[in-house]
Every structure is written in structure tokens, then in C-alpha cells.
Design brief:
Layout lengths: L2 H36 L4 H10 L1 H34 L3 E4 L10 E4 L1 H18 L6 H31 L12 H7 L6 E2 L3 E2 H29 L4 H19 L1 H4 L3 H4 L5 H14 L2 H6 L8 H30 L5 E2 L2 E2 L2 E10 L2 E10 L12 H12 L11 H25 L1 H9 L10
Length: 440
């Protein structure tokens, strides 16, 4: 590769790419919520309202009307989840050891925090009457605007913290503000001993808003129409089950790309603080004003298919986690796990060290190299298909997830090929397809 090509690649990676993403991502997140609340989820309505200036006017009016209430709501929710993160007892466990030799420490409190959060939402709304969950829908647009502003400042704090007082040796500083702000500096940023910032942004805020928002949208639909449609029940129920699966498996999430490779910067933290709440629930947000009822048999089929996909997704992740925890000494689908014991080298403090890892070639991981993405995408289809309308935007999460996971599969394969070399080549011969058997 010539010097001009290298310079161009560096320019795109460190300046143009991050600036482009940060420039469009914030208005995209805000306008997506605006479109589903005020324009019926139609692209034509969104384009007309933006070009005429109506969208900006309405967003400003929403901030003026609901800004303070949205701020109080967000502050209370963050404080509540922070108390759960710091205060809940749980079994201690170690995260994967990093290339620098750091071993992050965690407490297994995800499922407990999830249950307590849902029960608290039910108690304060349905039993005590302290807060009407339907109000979240009313404050939603203002809250998304405020969260974007908060995320910008918060990511600046992460940048300063990474530069001045990093939490561990696992930090990387490019020396380019735009790149470091976007990708982050610290791999495991913490405040004190127990406040793990990525666990808070990713799990206790981002993933915890996911099940709560559909419940709030269902409450708003009940307020508007006096009842909740079965399409809303389907969408909410499947998402609650999926999120319960996530928090039950949270320990496994600590060994994924989000935690092990993505540093604490705009990319991951803004994504969990703003993009996740604005995108992952758009289908349910749309249903709030546009209820749809399926026949009982069709509704039952959608629910069963959705639950089955969630279970298969968990089962695949469990197989991999089981093999790692037992060092390959276990059975998968009734047979001894078929594995490849791969060796690779890591450079630490200028010294090259040999490491070992396990590549699972049986079970779901013998079907394709990333088979668990198939049921995850299909599950999103089933909890979005209750929309029942011929629009594209309400299905954006399904489209986004598909593109994300296909891109991630390619990125993971390239990383593994560079890391494991001939062992990965051997694995690809045993498992030739990346995601879809006999197709891709």
C-alpha cells in the first residue's frame, strides 16, 4: 500500500469517518422519535416537516413544555439504576483477561436488577399511582434530545478521564481528539472500585430502557383507546422475554466485542445512551397510536415463533460459554464437544507471549460460524411484525440489526483470521458458512 493510500485511510478512519457519524447520528436519533410520534412513521411526512421547519419548531415546543419533567424523569431513573448497580449483592466473577494482563471484576446482579426495575415500575404506576407510565411517551422526544446533550458531555468526561486518570492499563491514546473522543481511550473505565461505566451505560441504562419503554408505550395506548391491542401485547411480551434472556446471560455479555474490544467513547456510550432507546423500540412506539389486532391463531403463532428464536439464540450462546468454562470437557447435543485448540501470540510490554483458546466446531457453532445471529434477527422480525402496516421506518430496527450483525460477522472473521492464523483456516474448513447454511 502506497503512502498516499495509507494517508487517505488514516484520514478517513481518524477524521472524516468519526466526524460524519457524529454529525448525522444525533439528528437521526431525534428525528426518528419525532417521526413516529408526529408523522405516523412516514418518510414523506418526515421530509416535508424537516424541509418546512415544522420539525424543528415542534422539537423546540416539546423541550419547552416537557423538558424539565423529562430531565427529572431521566435523573431519577439513572439514580435508581446506579443504586442497583452499586448496592445489589451478587456473586463475584472475573471478566476475560486482557492483552495487558488486566482482569476486570464484576458482580452478577443483572437479572436481579431487571426484576426489581420492572416491579418498581409496576408498583409506582399501577399500585401507588405515583407516576403514570404513559407520561414517558409524552416526555419521550424531549428526553431523547436531553440524552443526546448529556451523552456529548459525558463522552468528553470519558476522554478527559482517559487522558488524566485511567482506571487500568488497558487504554489506547491516538493523540487525535476526534478519533479518541469517538472510539474512546479506556477499555474498562471505572469510577472507584465498583462503578463500571460501560456496564452502567450498556446494561443498566441502555438495555434497561429497552423493556421499560414498550411498557410505557402500552400504557399510553391504553390511555388513548381504553385497551391494549394484541399486537402491542405481542411486541411487548417478546421484548420482555428477550431482555430477560439478556440479563440472565449478562455474564456472557461481558465477554463480547462490546466489552472486550470497544473502548468507552462516543461509539459505544452514545450508542447505548441514545441510539438504543431511540431505535430498538420504534416498532412499539409506532403501535402506540396505530393499534392492530391479529386473530388469536396468528397471534399465538407469532408469539411461539418469537419465543423459540429467543431460546435458540440463548442456547447457542450457552453452548459456547459452557465449552469455555469446562475447557472443552463437555457434551454438546449429546456428544463430546468437537473443538480446535488454537494457539496465538500476544505482545505485552514488548514481549511475545503464547496463548491458547478454544474454537467450538459442534452444536450450533458447527452449523455456521455465527449461527446465533439468525435467531436473533428472526426474533426481531417477530416482535416487529405485529405492526401490521406497510411502512418501512417502523421496521428500521430489523434492518439495522441485520446490517449490524452481518457487518460484525465479517469483522469478527477478519480479527480471528489474523489472531489464530492456520487454526482459523482449519476451523473455516470444518464450518465453511459464516451465518446462513449453504447461502452465506
Amino acid at each position: 500500500m502506497g503512502a498516499d493510500s495509507i494517508m487517505g485511510s488514516t484520514l478517513v478512519r481518524n477524521y472524516i469517518g468519526p466526524m460524519f457519524i457524529m454529525t448525522w447520528s444525533i439528528p437521526f436519533a431525534i428525528l426518528q422519535v419525532y417521526c413516529h410520534i408526529h408523522e405516523g412513521g412516514t418518510i414523506s411526512g418526515l421530509i416535508e416537516s424537516v424541509s418546512s421547519g415544522r420539525a424543528l419548531q415542534i422539537v423546540g415546543e416539546e423541550l419547552q413544555k416537557n423538558g424539565w419533567n423529562a430531565f427529572v424523569m431521566l435523573a431519577c431513573f439513572m439514580a435508581f439504576e446506579l443504586v442497583l448497580l452499586l448496592g445489589l449483592p451478587g456473586k463475584k466473577y472475573d471478566g476475560p483477561k486482557t492483552i495487558m494482563g488486566h482482569v476486570p471484576k464484576y458482580r452478577d446482579t443483572g437479572l436481579t436488577a431487571y426484576i426489581i426495575t420492572l416491579l418498581t415500575a409496576y408498583l409506582i404506576s399501577e399500585q401507588l399511582g405515583w407516576f403514570n407510565l404513559a407520561k414517558v411517551y409524552d416526555y419521550y422526544l424531549a428526553a431523547i434530545v436531553e440524552m443526546n446533550l448529556f451523552a456529548l458531555v459525558f463522552c468528553l468526561f470519558l476522554y478527559i478521564k482517559g487522558r488524566t486518570f485511567p482506571s487500568s492499563v488497558d487504554n489506547h491514546f491516538d493523540g487525535i481528539f476526534v478519533a479518541d473522543y469517538y472510539r474512546g481511550i479506556e477499555l474498562y473505565p471505572r469510577i472507584g472500585k465498583h462503578f463500571d461505566i460501560k456496564m452502567f451505560t450498556n446494561c443498566r441504562f441502555g438495555m434497561m430502557t429497552w423493556p421499560l419503554l414498550p411498557l410505557c408505550f402500552a400504557a399510553k395506548q391504553r390511555e388513548l383507546y381504553g385497551e391494549i391491542s394484541n399486537s402491542m401485547w405481542l411486541s411487548v411480551a417478546l421484548q420482555l422475554i428477550y431482555c430477560a434472556k439478556f440479563f440472565y446471560w449478562e455474564r456472557g455479555y461481558m465477554g463480547t466485542t462490546d466489552i472486550m474490544h470497544d473502548r468507552g467513547g462516543y461509539y459505544i456510550c452514545w450508542g447505548c445512551l441514545c441510539y438504543l432507546p431511540s431505535t430498538y423500540t420504534v416498532h412499539t412506539l409506532f403501535l402506540t397510536k396505530y393499534p392492530y389486532n391479529y386473530s388469536a391463531p396468528v397471534a399465538a403463532l407469532i408469539f411461539i415463533a418469537g419465543v423459540l428464536c429467543i431460546f435458540v439464540n440463548y442456547w447457542a450462546d450457552y453452548q459456547r460459554m459452557k465449552v469455555r468454562e469446562t475447557d472443552g470437557d463437555c457434551k454438546i447435543w449429546g456428544k463430546k464437544a468437537e473443538i480446535i485448540r488454537a494457539e496465538y501470540t500476544e505482545t505485552r510490554d514488548g514481549k511475545r507471549e503464547k496463548k491458547k483458546s478454544i474454537l467450538l466446531c459442534s452444536g450450533f457453532w458447527g452449523v455456521t460460524r455465527h449461527f446465533h445471529y439468525v435467531p436473533e434477527i428472526l426474533a426481531s422480525v417477530f416482535w416487529a411484525c405485529p405492526i401490521g402496516h406497510g411502512l418501512i421506518l417502523p421496521y428500521f430496527y430489523v434492518i439495522f440489526l441485520t446490517l449490524l450483525l452481518f457487518h460484525r460477522a465479517g469483522r469478527d472473521d477478519r480479527k480471528c483470521s489474523g489472531k489464530y492464523g492456520s487454526y482459523w483456516t482449519e476451523y473455516c474448513k470444518k464450518v465453511p458458512y459464516r451465518i446462513i447454511p449453504y447461502v452465506y
